[in-house]
Amino acid sequence: MTATSEENAALRIASGRKAFVEPLCLGERLKQIRLANQWTLEDVSQRTGLARSTLSKIENDQVSPTFSVVQKLTTGLNIDLPQLLTPPKRERYTMGRRDLTRKGKGQQHPTPTYEHELLGHQLAQKRMIPFKTIVRARSFEEYHQWVRHDGEEFLMVLHGDVMLYTEFYAPLVMVEGDSIYFDSDMGHALVSTSAEDAVVLSVCTRGDIA
Prior knowledge:
With 210 residues, the protein is of the alpha+beta class. The chain has 6 helices and 9 strands; from the N terminus they run ααααααβββββββββ. α3 (41-48) packs across α5. Residues 1-23 have low confidence and may be disordered. It comes from Vreelandella aquamarina. This is Helix-turn-helix transcriptional regulator.
């Protein structure tokens, strides 16, 4: 395999004797490729012509391979240079959190125009704020100012009909089953237009609800 002049420039290889760029975590990436293919060090040694001890030192970041060694790796393992230089995938760890909210057991947060029920309220440091809302307002005039908060919001009508007022658009009629995604720092307000108070489900990415 012959590296292009662009690859040589990007990797800043002045000669075949200079160490390959270290911040690429090449040893970790090589080990990841080897394990993904269920190869032993001996398997890789036979494929590349490199000694097992050399391969072990590369994987454990005890040595930095020269460009000629990298060429043997890419040729012997039948991979291209970008594959070998791709940063290793990091294992993702999850705390396995969960927070069940039984029907009607969310945290109540009433306002003059809305009756919010915060869902998943016992879970701290959430990236989303889900809540179910009974829309009490019957007229836009009931709002003294626009509702606005940081982030984005997804809203779905669960029951009834609503009129969604937004700062930069004409009022929008929404019926049961309709949904909308919008920037919640844009002024917005909901009004029930059905005989009974409408119920909506909202999920905000950040910020407080009003």
